[in-house]
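Margin note: ligand = heme C.
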Amino acid sequence: MKTNNIFRLLTLALAAMAFAFVTSCEGPAGPAGPAGADGTNGADGAPGQDINETCKQCHNSNTEIIGAQQAQFAYSAHAGGTYYNRTGQCAACHNNEGFRARASYTDEWTEADAFTGALTQISCYTCHMVHETYTLDDWGLTYVTPVTATLFGFESDAYAQGSFVDNGNSNMCMQCHQSRDPGLVPAADATGTISITNKRWGPHHGPQGNVSNSLAGVRIAGNASYPAEGNGHTGSISGTITCVECHFGENKDHALGFADNYGTKVFANYAACVQCHTDEDTAEGLHEALAAEVQGKIDALQALLLDQGILDGSDYVAVPIDLSADQAKALWNYKLAVEDKSLGLHAPTYMKALLDNSIALITP
Ligand code: HEC
Ligand code: HEC
Ligand code: HEC
Ligand code: HEC
Ligand code: HEC
Ligand code: HEC
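Resulting structure:
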C-alpha cells in the first residue's frame, strides 16, 4: 500500500513536470472564468449535548443524587482520615492518591510505588471512577479484579503469600482491609523461642479480608477444626456473603451500616442475612449469641496472656520479651481476633477454632 502510494505520487509529479514543459511553449494565460454555483447544504449534524444536563445527572441545585452518599460517607470511618498525610507504605491504603497509584497489591510494595504528590483523604475518587467519562458509568469501582497476592507472607517465611477468593465488588475492600504481617509470625508447628521487641507486634488494624477467607491466623492443631482456606462466613458450607452486601447493603449505605465515628452502638444490616437465615430477628439473635461467645473466648485468652506476663495492662505486648513458639502462636491469634473487630461474624467457625485451640495450647 505504502509503496503503491509513493509510486502514484512519483507518477503524478512526473506528469506535472511533463505538462509544465509542454505548456511553457504556449502564450500567456487568459483571465480567470466566473465562480461556479454554490453546492447544496450538508445534512444537519446531531444536536450537541447540553453540558449542564450531563453534569446534572449527578450535580443539581440540591445535590439530590450524590448528596445522600456524601452525607453518609461523612459519617463513616472512611472519612476519618487517619494518617492520610503519611507517605510510604501507609499511603497505599490511607489516602486517595496512594491507593490509586498503587492500584493493586499483586507485588510486594517498594519505595518505587510511593506516590510523591499532594495527598488527600479517602473520598469518592478512591472507590469510584469520578469524572472519567461524565456518565453514570463513573460509579464503576476503581478495582474489581480478585486479590491474587496479599501482603501477608512477605515478612514471615512461615507463610506463603496468600490469595483471596473472587468477591466481585468487594475485591476493592480487600485491597485495603488486609493484614500486613510484621515478621516472626510462627508456623503452626514452630518450636523454639521468638524474641519480640515491638509492642505493636500483631496483624495491622484491618485483617478483615484475610479473616473473611479463613486466613492469617496460626492454624494451631487441636480439638477444633478449621474450614478450608478461602471460605469465610459460611464456613464449610457453600455460599458467599460479601463485604458490600453486609456493610453497604441494598441501599448502598455509605455510612457503612455498622459503625460510626462517635462511639454509639453499631447497627447491622440484617436484611442481608435473610437469603440464608430464617428472618432478620433470627439472624440478629444468632449474631448477639455469637458476639457474646467470641467475646468470652477473647477474654479467656487475654487472661492467660496477662497471667503469663505477655501482655501489659494496655493490651500491648510486654516487650522486650522472649516467648515460646506456642505462646507467640496464641498471642498472634488473640491479636487477630481483636483486630478483626467483628467478634467472629466474618468467619464464625474459623475464629472460634483459632481461639479454642489457642486457649488449649497455653493453658498450664
Ligand atoms: C457520574 C456522576 C458525576 C457527573 C456526571 C459529574 N460529576 Fe462532578 N463530581 C462527582 C463526584 C462524585 C464528585 C466528588 C464529590 C465529593 O468529593 O464529595 C464531583 C465533584 C465535582 C466538583 C468539585 C471539585 C472536584 O473536582 O472535586 C466539581 C467542580 C464538579 N464535580 C463539576 C462537574 C461538572 C462541571 C460536570 C459536568 C461536566 C460534572 N461534575 C459531572 C460526580 C459527577
Ligand atoms: C494494606 C493496607 C494498609 C496499609 C499498608 C496500612 N494501613 Fe493502617 N489501616 C488499614 C485499614 C483497612 C484500617 C482500618 C481497619 C479497621 O478499622 O479495622 C487501618 C487502620 C489504621 C489505624 C487505626 C485507625 C483508627 O481509626 O483506629 C492506624 C493508627 C493506622 N491504620 C496506621 C497505619 C500506619 C502508620 C501505616 C503505615 C506504617 C498503615 N496504617 C498502613 C489499612 C492499611
Ligand atoms: C470505600 C469505597 C467507597 C467510597 C469512598 C465511596 N463509595 Fe460509592 N459505592 C461504593 C460501593 C461498594 C458501592 C456499591 C456498588 C454496588 O453495589 O454495585 C457504591 C455505590 C455508589 C452509588 C450507587 C451507584 C449505582 O450504580 O447505583 C453512588 C451514587 C455512589 N456510590 C456515590 C458515592 C459518592 C458521591 C461518594 C463520595 C461522597 C462515594 N460513593 C464514596 C464504594 C464507595
Ligand atoms: C483505600 C483503602 C480502603 C478501601 C478501598 C476500603 N477501605 Fe474500609 N477503611 C479503610 C481505612 C484506612 C479505614 C479506617 C479509617 C480511619 O479510621 O480513619 C477503614 C474503615 C472501614 C470500616 C470501619 C467503619 C467504621 O465506621 O468504624 C469499615 C466497616 C470498612 N472500612 C469497610 C469497607 C468496605 C466494605 C469496603 C469496600 C466497599 C472498604 N472498606 C474499602 C481503608 C479502605
Ligand atoms: C450466603 C448465606 C449466608 C448469609 C447471607 C448469612 N449467613 Fe450467617 N451463616 C451462614 C452459614 C452457612 C453459617 C454456618 C457456618 C459454619 O457452620 O461454619 C452461618 C453462621 C452464622 C453465625 C454463627 C452461628 C454459630 O454460632 O456458629 C451467625 C451468628 C450468623 N451466621 C449470622 C449472620 C448474620 C447476622 C448475617 C447477616 C448480616 C448472616 N449470617 C448472613 C450463611 C449465611
Ligand atoms: C456477614 C456480614 C458481614 C460480612 C460478609 C462482612 N462484615 Fe465486616 N462486620 C460485620 C459486623 C456485624 C461487624 C461488627 C460490628 C460490631 O459489632 O461492631 C463487622 C465489623 C467490621 C469492621 C470493624 C468495624 C468497626 O467496628 O470499626 C470492619 C473494618 C469490617 N467489618 C470490614 C469488612 C470487610 C472489609 C469485609 C469483607 C472482606 C467484611 N467486613 C465482611 C458484618 C460483616
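The radius of gyration is 32 Å.
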